[in-house]
Design a protein that fits this description.
- About 55% of the residues lie in helices and about 15% in strands.
- The protein is an alpha+beta fold.
- It has 2 domains: about 100 residues, no CATH class; about 210 residues, MetI-like (MetI-like fold).
- The longest helix has about 35 residues.
Amino acid sequence: MATTEVRPIGRTQGSPPEPAPDQAALVSEDSKVYVASQWTLMRRKFLRHKLAIVGGVVTLIIYLIAAFAEFLAPFPAGAFSAQYTYAPPQPLHLFMDTETGRVFQPHVNGYKVEVDPVALRRTFVVDDEQVIPVRFFAKGAPYTLWGLFDWDRHLVGPVEYDQDPDRIKIPMYLLGADRLGRDVLSRIIYGTRISMTIGLVGVTISFVLGILLGGLSGYYAGAVDNIIQRIIEFLRSIPEIPLWMGLAAALPQTWSPLQVYFGITIILSVIGWTGLARVVRGRFLSLRTEDFVMSARLDGNSELRIIWVHMVPSFLSHIIASLTLAIPGMILAETALSFLGLGLRPPIVSWGVLLQEAQNIRSVATAPWLLLPGLMVVIAVLALNFLGDGMRDAADPYGR
């Protein structure tokens, strides 16, 4: 009787073994990576950078605050109450205990005055027995949002408000008051707009100068390269802080706050373009002999078209990452100049201008909440740095 050979089901003799399920999934994932576009790979790598995502979310929130400053701020930036100078922060309570139980009633507690028997100094203390009702989407000082829409609603504010936009009738200082009785929270929100936009405007100007001059330096080389590089070396050899102070002090004292704002922006841009120009020059020196550049030149394209249309897009991701990392430098520069009194000046409100209140050690000892604008600078700079690191890593999706 002949015996029947039993063979395993699933593959024939001599065929390669089937991959394990996990290995098959890995092979499928690798095949997706091989056919994915460059932007898809960059997006996937950016999403794996957790700190970059956190930095992006925080940066988005900060710019939303800057865009809706009038709505988010409880009071105008210049509104004050001389009765409540250096008033401490009032916690915002959402619920209130009543005879019928705990109900939703947003409120803050008022103040009572105490006298220090040693220093004989008057201080404000939050009074738990005095209740000031607070309302969301409260009616307050009128404003024009983005210069287009007239409105009088604020995200949070006291139930009663003063028709005079320069006065604070009901004390509601969620982050305390300054030496003139102005609301620190409202001034920080308004300062966000100036401090964050000066970084964007300055980086935009540096972007144009850096790419244009760096591109011309690397594209033409020779005498043009020598002239531009000597200018860059001269600017980089000057100490930054004395250079900022000298250029900022040259601004006329008769200029309006808006003119000072644009003057500081241009000063920061003139100083900040040199680093990007060096990077662009190096890339252009390596790209000017590539085949696609020679082909564009033979097709009769102008020099500027070759630079902006053909050469710049080849390393645009690196430029975007560099610009994202340059914005914090602009913010810190404006803050330092304004803190020293050589940058923006009142009535303009920026984080650097607000930190001028913290120059006096006695004021800081009396009202430590005056240092909160510095905390906002730290948060914004860290968020932008995390975002820039993630974009720089995403720009090289095949790196580790």
